[in-house]
């Protein structure tokens, strides 16, 4: 499958200035930017930047960012699922994962995450993909947000809904390990029915077990 990455950008009002939302961004461009020191939800910020640079170089990899001048204050990643996860087992070429979305705390509250997702999905080529995201409560910034698990889950669902992702049932053990965890999915308009059927077989692998 040939992956097409159509660059786009938009702006978002923030205090007395405009934030730039853009992508997919190349690895070369990412290297030029500084990263906000509070982008640490998944790993230390310098390691996170290195990880995003690597993803940007993948054929299917997409990094869309929010920046305040030359400071990256938010990002979302799209790439193939981890080979160790069940979602890679079907070798579905047009199944990609929204692997991470993170907004620096001081830039939250202006719908930055929702706007970034909407911009990401606006690329017409995204209609060729099944997009999944696996939400695990242990990745959520409960302390920084002041929200409990269910309030944060509701917030995440609303944000993902803005990008067209909705809740899908699954018997995946890791997702099923806590009721707040969930699988959210967007099936592009150009995805063929047999591909959707393949995906359904990935979602439920234990349906005949008692």
Automatic annotation (TrEMBL):
Which Pfam families does this chain map to? Acetyltransf_1
Q: Which GO terms describe its biological process?
A: acetoin catabolic process
N-acetyltransferase domain ranges (all copies): 41-121
Organism's domain of life? Bacteria
Which GO terms label this protein's molecular function in UniProt?
A: acetoin dehydrogenase (NAD+) activity; acyltransferase activity, transferring groups other than amino-acyl groups
What is the protein name for this chain? Acetoin dehydrogenase
Question: According to the entry, what is the taxonomic lineage of the organism?
Answer: Bacteria, Bacillati, Bacillota, Bacilli, Bacillales
């Amino acid at each position: 499958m040939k992956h097409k990455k159509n660059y786009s950008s938009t702006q978002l009002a923030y205090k007395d200035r405009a934030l730039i939302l853009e992508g997919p961004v190349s690895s070369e461009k990412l290297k030029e930017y500084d990263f906000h020191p509070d982008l640490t939800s998944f790993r230390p910020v310098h390691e996170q930047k290195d990880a995003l640079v690597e993803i940007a170089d993948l054929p299917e990899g997409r990094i869309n960012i929010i920046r305040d001048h030359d400071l990256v204050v938010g990002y979302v990643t799209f790439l193939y699922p981890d080979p160790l996860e069940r979602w890679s087992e079907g070798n579905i070429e047009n199944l990609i994962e929204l692997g991470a979305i993170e907004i620096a705390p001081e830039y939250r509250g202006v719908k930055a995450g929702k706007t970034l997702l909407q911009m990401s999905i606006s690329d017409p080529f995204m209609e060729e993909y099944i997009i999944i995201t696996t939400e695990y409560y242990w990745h959520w910034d409960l302390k920084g947000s002041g929200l409990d698990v269910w309030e944060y889950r509701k917030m995440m669902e609303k944000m993902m809904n803005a990008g067209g992702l909705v809740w899908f049932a699954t018997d995946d053990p890791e997702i099923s390990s806590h009721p707040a965890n969930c699988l959210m999915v967007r099936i592009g308009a150009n995805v063929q029915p047999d591909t959707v059927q393949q995906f359904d077989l990935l979602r439920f692998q234990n349906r005949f077990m008692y």
